[in-house]
Amino acid sequence: ADGLLKRLDDPAWTDDLYVLAAVAQSPRATTDILDRIARKDDPRLHQKLLGTKAALGKNQKGLAVMRLVARHPNVSQDTLGRLARSPDEYVISDVLANSKTPEAVLRDFGDRDSYLIDWGIAQNPKAPPELLHKRSSSKNEYTRSFVARNPNTPVVLLSSLARDASWIVRRDVTLHPGVPRALLEQLAQDSDQRVRLSAERELKKR
């Protein structure tokens, strides 16, 4: 952590996007270090990183620095609340997907019409059930699939999701930690082999 702080305090590196990305990915980055990065007002920190494989390092997808901060296990609720004001919806989506994000922040975005916002909420394992219920009928199949496997999704919703037109959604119902055995047995007879195999694997764990 001391070494990371030296990088942040060094004028030669403190505003370097790739150095900040590397710091934001380090398991030694503390809550305070992550908050210091989140407080920077450089708009480029909210944008996708471009560069060579060597420059991107472990961040081969080029995730924005603020997305890396939002995903870090040491990020604080206060920092997540600050990042929820990001101008970039990809950053906001990662904030909403983080289980540490306060429920009030999730509800603030509950009526926003955006698939990225929906994805964030639908992936948060502590999302309020009513917000998940709303997204269970989304036109976006990936939103519905995230709801199907979310542990906070009420079991009563799984029956309808198990009849979804998308095999991805039906498959993800089998991955819900509370899916009833009877529903798994039903999905083990599904018309899609990928769904059947997933249901059979889960049944063997029972």
Give the secondary structure arrangement, pairings included.
Elements: H1 2-9, H2 17-25, H3 31-38, H4 53-56, H5 65-71, H6 77-83, H7 89-97, H8 103-108, H9 115-123, H10 129-135, H11 141-149, H12 155-161, H13 167-173, H14 181-187, H15 193-204
Structural class, from helix and strand content? mainly alpha
With helices defined by DSSP (H or I, 4 residues minimum), what is the helix count? 15
Helix percent band:
55-70%
Q: Strand-residue fraction?
A: under 5%
Shape verdict: elongated
pLDDT averaged over residues: 96
Number of DSSP E strands: 0
Describe the biggest sheet?
none
Topology order in helix (H) and strand (E) letters:
HHHHHHHHHHHHHHH
C-alpha Rg (nearest Å): 20 Å
Q: Which stretches are poorly predicted, pLDDT < 50 over at least 5 residues?
A: none
The separation of the N and C termini measures 43 Å
Summarize the structure.
With 206 residues, the protein is mainly α. It has helices at 2-9, 17-25, 31-38, 53-56, 65-71, 77-83, 89-97, 103-108, 115-123, 129-135, 141-149, 155-161, 167-173, 181-187, 193-204.
